[in-house]
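Handout, page 2. Input:
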Amino acid sequence: MDDLAISRAAELKPIIDIAKDLGLGEDELDLYGTTKAKVHLEVQERLKSKPDGNYVVVTGITPTPLGEGKTVTTLGLSQGLNAIGERTLTCIRQPSLGPMFGIKGGGAGGGHAQVAPMEDFNLHLTGDAHAVSAAHNLLAAALDSRIYHEDRLTDDRMKRLKLTRLDIDAASASFNRVVDVNDRALRDIVVGLGAANGRPRETGFSITAASEVMAVLALSESLADLRARLGRMVVATRCSGEPVTADDLGCAGAMAVLLKEAIKPNLMQTVEQTPVFVHTGPFGNIAHGNSSILADRIGLKLMSDGYVVTEAGFGADCGLEKFYDIKCRTSGLLPTCIVIVASIRALKMHGGGPRVVPGRRLHRDYREENLTLLEAGLPNLEACLRIAGQFGAPVVVAVNRFPSDSDREVEMVAAASRKAGASGAYPSEVHSRGGKGGEDLARGVVEACRKPAERRFIYEISASIRAKIEALATKVYGAGRVDFLPEAEKKMKFFESNGYGDLPVNMAKTHLSLSHDPLLKGAPTGFALPVRDIHLSAGAGFLYALCGEMQTMPGLPSVPAFMHVDLDEDGEIVGLS
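Output:
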């Protein structure tokens, strides 16, 4: 059966019963039909005296463009923990409609380890992404409107309207609008055309997941914190060089109103009735790529005698590092175990295997046993274990097993993992077998969670921006040095002189290599990492350094996934994957 058929065949509980099993009351929910609900933030007050449960984060090795099954493993591990009698809740990101209708497909997991109903999960859910789009685009409109009216209003008229002249430098207004579909034609546009429509200027669109508003939502700790963070968002500078914020534009309050419901985590379940919080979906390059702090915090209190399993998007060098240095630094939460997902095919690719291209049949080297190629790719796994080991929690390796993987190949990966310092390494067959296929992995995670865990960061928050970037480049990526381009040098001075030097740094680089170059596979070392520019996400609370061209608006392939999506004669959705 395909994923949609498996989802529809699953025996699901009414979501109110899932909530009851968690210890949530009906008055602490907003129901969205029978299969999903929003959880009130006030539940935190009731649960505040409870201890936190075990906090397990799932990341991966450097993947192929196909992905290596982190979400499948995250959900399957949760089901496996339940199968061995442990109370468990999963926290994952909400998927974007862009990749859903593009080439990647949905983000619900897959096979017998997925969130259900998968069509609800992948299509709109409770509308959070649309609320983010509305709030973001309101701010973009407010910026252009203010530029337009200040061009036309006299100082006396401004005073009568109780407006302070912001004297915005229109050339600095680089705040893109967003939409939750892939549309390359919107990457670069011109607004303000026509005599009555303001100053013409170049701008563009990003996908909604790339919105700073989405990152703000994910890192907010309360409704009041959300409102304050929105107000700090910087959208331009004045001609004097001072930043222009959403509060300066009088827009942050209305943005918070639009996000008042979106800040509540969404409750769903897996095909095996394991509870799942689905909340926020920040972009994994220019943002931290993790689900919300609020979902994790509520989940850990509800699972005070159990486990919360969450996913750090991308690999150990990107997703896991940002999970610790940005998300955990903000939340103060202590992970008790790290799970690294590895696949045989990705390690063969790192060993020099043929190119992996989405939509094309895998070369036979990936479909047949090849121990030589696999062994050559093991340094990538070893490097990811080295990275994970710096954060202070025990590390377990999950070998996401595909049907073509041989026993000898799986054992080679497991042996290399243990030799490189993993607490344990286990094959995972959750895609085909659900929770039963993850029981050994689950037992390994339970054992690892009994070991001591610390929370360590790669850099001190008080270090200079330059020192933070150099620490990430050398300690995480394996670079020999960092080459700062002139624009990056200028921005570092500007941000530090304007009070933004103490923010964490989010490195915007490819997820397809430990380096900045997606063609450098394996575990490259000694390379020069270029930093061409640095941008500010003041509301989210981090800087992001560009180590290459970052595309925030994907395009559609020649045969996009939406061409297969339709309604059948009974009005049922078909073609989702």
